[in-house]
Specification:
This protein has three helices and no strands. It is mainly α. The longest helix is centred in the first third of the chain and has 30 residues, at about 1-30. The two termini are about 20 Å apart. Keywords: Cell membrane, Membrane, Transmembrane, Transmembrane helix. This is DUF350 domain-containing protein.
Length: about 70
């Protein structure tokens, strides 16, 4: 029974982390005047690196908060 509870908590924390990452991306996209989605569709490597760095930064923060 304890294994199922831990599995459920892991699933919920994972889902929470994903939701926070998406929310962080949306906030970042609204704050910065550039249209990241359009630039990513044009294969703009510089924008991809910025977005990747932002997502990694949010992931580190979320992992520390959840832990």
């Amino acid at each position: 029974m304890e294994i199922l509870a831990n599995l459920g908590l892991s699933f919920l924390f994972g889902l929470l982390g994903i939701l926070i990452m998406v929310l962080g991306y949306l906030i970042f996209d609204k704050i910065i005047p550039a249209d990241f989605n359009k630039e990513l569709e044009k294969n703009n490597t510089a924008v991809a690196i910025v977005v990747a760095g932002m997502l990694i930064g949010i992931a580190i923060i979320v992992s520390r908060v959840i832990a």
